[in-house]
């Protein structure tokens, strides 16, 4: 079976984007199409993403206005697709990342803008498709991280004149798209936690911490179990199981390393330009408040991590009641926990004598999380590396000693 692209080649921009998407969707449903992958790439390169000139095989830069039009057309087309399976198939074809493909960075930039627009306009179809894409590429991957970097710029580094509905859009996310929100928390927290990298956690912006706490605790401060959504919510339009990565490990790393963090972060973030100041949607003027009463801000930020730690513990405690609905047994990866323990080891080695209280709080939170995870059978697989890392801790307090004693009782 052959595919006729003659009509598509006669279509002008931006109509060719919509026509290209329709043609691409049709091809995905066609059996036995000769050179199917080559035709898909041709349509995407020349009529959707415009990353190639018609007269050249070289990758070219796309103008910002052109790019915005492409994002708008993608949002409208995907938003009108009713069948979730077809939408996921088209979405994954459009944004399939590859380390060796020079198109990938351009596509991820467009995807980031598309998701940002979907959050602001409550485009649930795009958010659901993005949630599936994030699980397919892994929420902890650099590709997922690249997309979320753009969201941090749009929603957590706002200027004072940013529209108020941005904060409203963030508040609506858990209800509107719970699976996307849970995967978003995983990726955003990993950007700073760097679980598995061998590095210590970078201090996240306070407003991001506050927003994550708000998402996890729900409107009335009660646990929403949102973090378990990747394990309990069926992926829309997906028949084959995909490995889910809930945000427990990176959030755990935030909590156990937070006693070593500096004063509240009101200016910088790891991917923010030095010239750009942050005004986060907490919605409160953190910077002005800090100048007036630094002690109060420090206490409030510390309280946020206490609330976050409580949310992590409550999530782990709730696992048994959700076990029959979960798509996989593992909630917390032992390798990730080992990585967190190693980071705490590094923090303790480099701290000074005045930080004894921080060391004790960090060890308490580490031990509490692991004890609850063991009790609720959230840790699946070999735990030997985790136990060895715990024994290597330079300092051990009462709770760590209690935790280590449980190994002997097993």
How many strands, what sense, and barrel or not for the largest sheet? none
Helix content bin: 55-70%
Question: Cα-atom Rg, whole angstroms?
Answer: 23 Å
Question: What ranges have pLDDT less than 50 throughout 5 or more consecutive residues?
Answer: 265-291, 293-297
Strand-and-helix sequence, N→C? HHHHHHHHHHHHHHHHHHH
Tally of separate helices = 19
- Total strands: the figure is 0
Describe the protein.
- With 410 residues, the protein is mainly alpha-helical.
- The chain has 19 helices and no strands.
- The N and C termini lie far apart (62 Å).
- Helix 5 (84-94) packs across helix 7 and helix 13 (248-257) packs parallel to helix 16.
Offer a concise description of the structure:
The chain is mainly alpha-helical and 410 residues long.
Provide tags for this entry.
elongated, mainly alpha, 410 residues
Task: Summarize the SSE layout with pairings.
Elements: H1 6-9, H2 15-28, H3 36-48, H4 64-80, H5 84-94, H6 103-121, H7 124-137, H8 142-155, H9 165-176, H10 178-193, H11 206-217, H12 229-232, H13 248-257, H14 286-292, H15 294-322, H16 334-350, H17 356-375, H18 384-391, H19 398-409
């Amino acid at each position: 079976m052959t595919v006729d692209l003659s009509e598509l080649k006669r279509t002008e921009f931006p109509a060719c984007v919509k026509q290209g998407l329709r043609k691409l969707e049709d091809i995905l449903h066609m059996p036995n199409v000769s050179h199917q992958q080559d035709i898909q790439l041709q349509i995407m390169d020349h009529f959707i993403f415009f990353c190639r000139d018609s007269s050249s095989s070289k990758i070219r830069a796309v103008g910002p206005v052109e790019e915005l039009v492409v994002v708008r057309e993608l949002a409208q087309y995907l938003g009108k697709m009713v069948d979730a399976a077809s939408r996921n198939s088209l979405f994954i074809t459009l944004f399939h990342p590859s380390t060796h493909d020079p198109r990938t960075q351009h596509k991820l930039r467009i995807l980031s803008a598309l998701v940002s627009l979907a959050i602001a306009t409550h485009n649930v179809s795009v958010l659901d498709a993005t949630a599936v894409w994030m699980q397919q590429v892994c929420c902890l991957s650099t590709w997922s991280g690249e997309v979320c970097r753009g969201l941090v710029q749009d929603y957590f580094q706002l200027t004072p004149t940013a529209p108020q509905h941005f904060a409203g859009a963030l508040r609506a996310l858990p209800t509107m798209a719970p699976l996307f929100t849970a995967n978003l928390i995983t990726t955003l927290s990993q950007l700073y936690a760097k679980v598995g990298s061998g590095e210590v956690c970078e201090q996240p912006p306070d407003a991001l911490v506050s927003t994550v706490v708000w998402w996890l605790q729900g409107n009335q401060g009660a646990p929403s179990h949102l973090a378990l959504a990747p394990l309990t919510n069926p992926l829309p339009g997906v028949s084959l199981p995909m490995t889910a990565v809930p945000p427990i490990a990176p959030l755990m790393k935030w909590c156990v390393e937070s006693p070593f963090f500096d004063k509240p972060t009101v200016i910088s973030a790891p991917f923010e330009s030095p010239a750009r100041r942050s005004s986060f949607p907490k919605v409160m003027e953190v910077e002005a408040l800090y100048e007036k009463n630094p002690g109060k801000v420090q206490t409030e930020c510390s309280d946020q991590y206490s609330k976050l730690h409580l949310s992590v513990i409550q999530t782990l405690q709730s696992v048994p009641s959700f076990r029959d609905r979960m798509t996989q047994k593992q909630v917390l990866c032992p390798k990730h926990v080992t990585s967190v323990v190693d980071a705490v080891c590094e923090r303790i080695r480099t701290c000074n004598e005045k930080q004894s209280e921080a060391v004790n709080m960090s060890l308490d939170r580490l031990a509490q999380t692991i004890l609850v995870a063991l009790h609720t059978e959230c840790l699946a697989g070999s735990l030997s590396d985790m136990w060895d890392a715990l024994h290597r801790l330079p300092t051990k307090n009462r709770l760590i000693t209690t935790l280590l004693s449980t190994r002997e009782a097993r």
